[in-house]
Design brief:
This protein is mainly beta. It is built from 6 helices and 26 strands. It is elongated, with a radius of gyration of 24 Å.
């Protein structure tokens, strides 16, 4: 299913006419008159022409399915855009409204004139309230106002889509990977070696002008063949916590029943708890490769193991115009979290350097690419987290490897953290 948004046009009056049914207006006080519908249509056209608003038609696989838009308003004295939407009954229950509103939030962020998006669905509109919650809007107060000859009680939902502003802020740590070696007080150059061994999980790395290079070579062996098949990885992490040999205690329990095979020293390196985490890296355009930065809980307590996926980029998902970047929250084994992960389409060459960041508070996480907001997850992660930086080479079904493409090299120009404001 392909959902697209298109500027409201002269020919879109039938979309409003179909939306003016008792079913579609049940939470809005009922249908309008034919004259009011025509006036609404003309108003949409005028608002688009003047730039005061952006009114759009929702299409599903090329078929008109409803409307969505945003327009200027004030919210508690602050400039904002207000969003409204409607999807025809035959397209409901298929994720159309969620995808349309998701696209709209990115349009508002790209617009840049106002950094706050608000929505006011009626309190009895269960679907619209759930939609706002699922896309990172934060619930506010309820209020009642006169509406179409009656009253409407609505819930206030707000979404901060403002860009990441680091001006005037000083980084706690600004890692540029200079010198001849890694800073061992920060980094542990092994991929969760407690499930394998330091020898098998050791990174191939170099530092110098241009930053860090993590490398998978022709002779790089799979890190844990009986657990993870022929997956090859070169990885840095900034912490290490696991139990004695034979225990079930260890970071990143990626499958049930994992047992510590080699005892590791505890390493409390570069641990972060709230603030901004930013990394500047370049992806690899190859079907077998993936690069990622995903801080995880240090995991002194078993449930403190959630993941903030700052960037997950598969080489198979890059093309000449851009590519897809995975961002979001993954619970791993934290029962207090819910999966809130998605892939964001980014235009441009992702094999060049780009900035990927999160702004993390005890209540929410906002995700950014090149300083522009792309996603919010309203969840509480309130424990120390460590960096996880890596390049993967995934096995092919036929067991072959593209040796001509090796080495796969993840380039990281910098990583830095800022304290909470």
């Amino acid at each position: 299913m392909r959902v697209g948004l298109h500027p409201w046009s002269e020919g879109d009056l039938p979309v409003l006419e179909r939306a003016n049914s008792p079913e579609m207006t049940a939470h809005l006080g009922g249908p309008e008159s034919d004259e009011q519908v025509r006036e609404r249509h003309e108003r949409y056209l005028r608002l688009n022409a003047s730039g005061e608003a952006r009114m759009l038609r929702i299409d599903v696989d090329g078929v008109p399915a409803g409307g969505i838009g945003y327009w200027a308003t004030d919210h508690d004295g602050a400039p904002a855009f207000e969003a409204g939407w409607g999807v025809e009954p035959q397209f409901q229950g298929r994720g159309v409204a969620r995808e349309a509103l998701r696209q709209l939030t990115r349009l508002v962020a790209a617009d840049g004139r106002r950094g706050l998006l608000v929505a006011y669905p009626g309190v009895d509109n269960v679907a619209s309230n759930a939609l706002c919650r699922s896309l990172g809007f934060e619930a506010g107060v309820t209020s009642t106002m006169p509406w179409r000859g009656s009253e409407l009680t609505f819930r206030v939902w707000t979404l901060d889509v403002s860009p990441l502003d680091l001006s005037g802020r000083t980084a706690e740590i600004d890692e540029r990977f200079v010198g001849a070696s890694l800073d061992e007080s920060r980094w542990w150059p092994f991929y969760t070696p407690h499930w394998s061994s330091r020898e098998a999980a050791a990174a191939r790395w170099s530092v110098g002008p241009g930053g860090l290079r993590l490398r998978i070579d022709e002779d790089t062996a799979p890190w844990a063949p009986d657990l993870d098949g022929e997956l090859r990885v070169s990885h840095l992490q900034s912490g290490q916590f696991s139990g004695p040999v034979g225990s079930l205690v260890g970071q990143h329990r990626f499958r049930p029943g994992l047992v510590v095979r080699e005892e590791q020293p505890q390493h409390r390196g570069w641990l972060v708890r709230h603030g901004v985490i930013e990394v500047r890296l370049a992806a690899i355009r190859h079907d077998d490769a993936m690069v990622a930065c995903w801080p995880i809980g240090f995991e002194e307590q078993p449930d403190d193991c959630g993941e903030l996926c700052i960037a997950e980029i598969f080489g198979s998902e890059l093309d000449d115009e851009g590519g897809w970047v995975g961002v979001g929250v993954k619970p791993q084994n934290d029962p207090r979290l819910r999966e809130d992960f998605e892939k964001i389409r980014i235009d441009g060459d992702l094999t060049a350097m780009h900035d990927y960041a999160v702004e993390w508070t005890p209540e929410r996480v906002r995700f950014f690419i090149d300083g522009r907001w792309v996603k919010t997850s309203v969840q509480s992660l309130d424990y120390p987290m460590q960096f996880m930086l890596e390049v993967y080479e995934f096995p092919r079904a036929d067991g072959t490897r593209d040796l001509s493409a090796l080495p796969h090299v993840l380039r990281v120009e910098r990583a830095r953290t800022f304290p909470s404001v």
